[in-house]
Every structure is written in C-alpha cells, then in structure tokens.
Design goal:
The chain is of the alpha/beta class. 35% of the residues lie in helices and 10% in strands. Among the domains are: 1-80, no CATH class; 94-241, Leucine-rich repeat, LRR (right-handed beta-alpha superhelix). The chain has 15 helices and ten strands. Strand 1 (19-25) and strand 2 form a beta hairpin. Helix 5 (95-102) packs parallel to helix 6 (122-130), helix 6 (122-130) runs parallel beside helix 7 (148-159) and helix 7 (148-159) runs parallel beside helix 8. It is globular and about 55 Å long. Pfam families: F-box (PF00646).
C-alpha cells in the first residue's frame, strides 16, 4: 500500500497535475482510484470547421460555450449568409434580435427564412432588407405580424434596380388576393431567367410540404409558394395527390386544391374521403392504410400522426403508448370524473 502511494506521489510530481481520489462502489468490492484533473483548454479545431453547417439554434448555442467560439461565430461571415429561423427560436425572435443576427452577414445575406416568426413586423423586416439588397430568397410563412402592404414594399425594394430576389414564400400571411399575387409575380419575374420562367413546375405533396416546406418549395421550381385554388378561388397553398388513380385527373383539377377544400392524409398526402377518415389523438387526418400502420394508445386505441408522435408518454409495450389525453384522464387524475359526477 505504501509503495502504491509513493508511486502516485512520484507521478504527481512528474506530471505536475492535480490528483483526485475517487472511490468506486460495486456489489462485490470497494476500490480507490486516482483521476488526473484536466486543465481547461481551447476547443478542438474541428469545432470551428462545422460552424458554417450548423442550424441557427445550434449556432447561437455554440457561441455561448466559450469566448473563443463566440469570437469565431461573430467574426465568420459564412454561417450567417443563409439564416433559417424556425422552432424553437421563432417565438423568441424580435425585430432587434433579427437585425443583430443579419448584421453579421455584412450586407451579403442571401437567404432569409422566417417560419412562424410572429414577432417580426414590417418595420423590422424593412430595416434588415435595407442592409441586405443581395437577397435571393425571402420566406416568411406564418409571420402573421407582417401585412401584405409591408411584404409588397419589401419585395419591390429587392426586385427593382437590378437586385436579386427570385423566390418568395407567403403561406399564412392573411388576406392575399389574386391582385396581390399578380403584383408579387410581376416583381419576381424581373430577376428570373427565361430558363427559370419556363421550367416545369413540380407537384407539391401535402405530407412532404408540411415536414420540409422550404426544401420542397425550392424543389418545385416555383417563384411563389401560394396560388389560386381551383376549387374555392382563394389564394392558398395548393397540393397535388400522390394516389395513382388521382394522378390522371390533375389536368381536370378534380383532385387538386387547398387543404380546406380537399382533406389529405397527414402521413402519405393522398386525398381522403369521409368514408376512410380515421381518428387520431392529435385530430389530424389519416387514411385507413396509414392508420393501421401507426402505433396506438393502449387506452383509447388512437394513434398520433408522425408529426405529433413526440407528445405521447412512454410505455413498457413495444407496440403501444399512452396518449396525453388518457394519461391525464386515467393515470394522473383518475378520480376527477367521479368527483364531478358527485357534485
């Protein structure tokens, strides 16, 4: 035992690092071991290489780890050329924060994607765009504090005088009319080449779009995401149907329309008639085929769609779970209904 301590002391002096004695417990024996405390140092060089590829939320989080990473994030322009603000940042993003973020691009911002950023106003958006006139993509779906007049003014400033805006997303902005749509289209055509204008537009499928709206908008070769619904004549997102029997009807617009006119399966995007609509916990629509494949709640036998599957509670069963409704009703507050009846 003495020899062991002597060896540790010699090693400590040789390495000049502090030692910490650690006692390990297990079911058979108790052992003492020595751990070298590592001095804090700079981040690994590989971390600096990945900064340009991080989503916005992770990029902001990385800047708060240490001073060297914060300095690198602040001075490197590349991560800030394409800003995509979505959950969980969307509800926290204000005009001032957006201005601070976009200023890191030094006027070279190429894409600005604000998904459901309800605190962004016309004034805040205009301040950003005045400093970033080279923008090619402006996506503001669900930014309900923006007005149509404000967005039109923004698009106008980015399209005139040989500026570069080519792609626009507006779904969720209130009260868009055919006249507004025509105005947006006329501005965007200024910067699109003849080849881009005559490219065949790809169909947009509901289930793909709800999962990755910006990606599938760009894949569709469209300048604007919304259009006039052939069913109700309102300006909304219009979806195609992936069902084989419906593909031949597209030219007649029998199975093409907005989600208000044609209910669609959250899982596979097909049109769903009243006879094949199935119930889900999250109240989203699923077809019979997809309903059979989804995991069910062990109490009510209803599934979540995949988009809301994170809301369920875990279960020991490999095939089932407990939904939040049944968890509250039967497990957390099982006597509430009885108390209400007695009253």
């Amino acid at each position: 035992m003495d020899n062991s301590h002597s060896a540790e002391e010699i090693e400590h002096e040789a390495t000049n690092k502090p030692l910490m004695s650690v006692t390990t417990f297990d079911s058979h024996k108790i052992t003492n071991s020595t751990v070298h405390q590592v001095e804090p140092g700079p981040p690994h060089e590989a971390l600096f290489l990945v900064l340009a590829y991080l989503p916005l939320f992770e990029l902001v989080a990385m800047s708060e780890v240490c001073k060297s990473l914060k300095d690198e994030v602040d001075k490197d322009v590349l991560p800030w050329l394409n800003i995509i603000a979505q959950r969980p940042l969307n509800l926290r993003l204000s005009d001032d924060i957006l201005m601070k973020m976009t200023s890191k691009a030094n006027g070279r911002l190429r894409s600005l994607v604000l998904i459901d950023c309800t605190r962004i106003t016309n004034a805040g958006l205009h301040r950003v765009l005045q400093k970033n006139l080279l923008l090619t993509k402006l996506y503001v779906p669900g930014c309900t504090s923006l007005t149509l007049d404000g967005v039109i003014e923004a698009v106008k400033s980015l399209c005139q005088n040989h500026h570069s805006l080519k792609s626009l997303m507006l779904d969720g902005i209130y009260n868009i009319t055919e006249e507004h749509l025509s105005t947006f289209s006329s501005y965007l055509q200024m910067n699109r080449t003849q080849q881009e204008q005559h490219q065949q537009q790809q169909p947009i499928l509901y289930h793909n779009y709800t999962n990755l709206p910006t990606h599938y908008h760009e894949e569709s070769n469209r300048a604007i995401d919304v259009e006039v619904c052939p069913k109700c004549s309102q300006v909304r997102m219009v979806f195609d149907c992936p069902r084989e029997t419906c593909k031949g009807k597209r030219s007649q617009a029998d199975c093409r329309g907005c989600s208000f006119c044609i209910p669609r399966c959250e899982e596979c995007g097909v049109c769903v008639g009243s006879e094949e609509m199935e119930e889900t916990v999250c109240k989203d629509i699923v077809c019979s085929c997809c309903w059979l494949q989804l995991r069910k709640c062990e109490f009510c036998n209803k599934p979540y769609c995949r988009r809301h599957a994170h809301q369920h509670s875990s279960s020991s069963s490999s095939t089932g779970f407990v939904c939040d409704v049944c968890l509250s009703k039967f497990i957390i507050n099982p006597y509430d209904d009885d108390d209400d009846e007695e009253e």
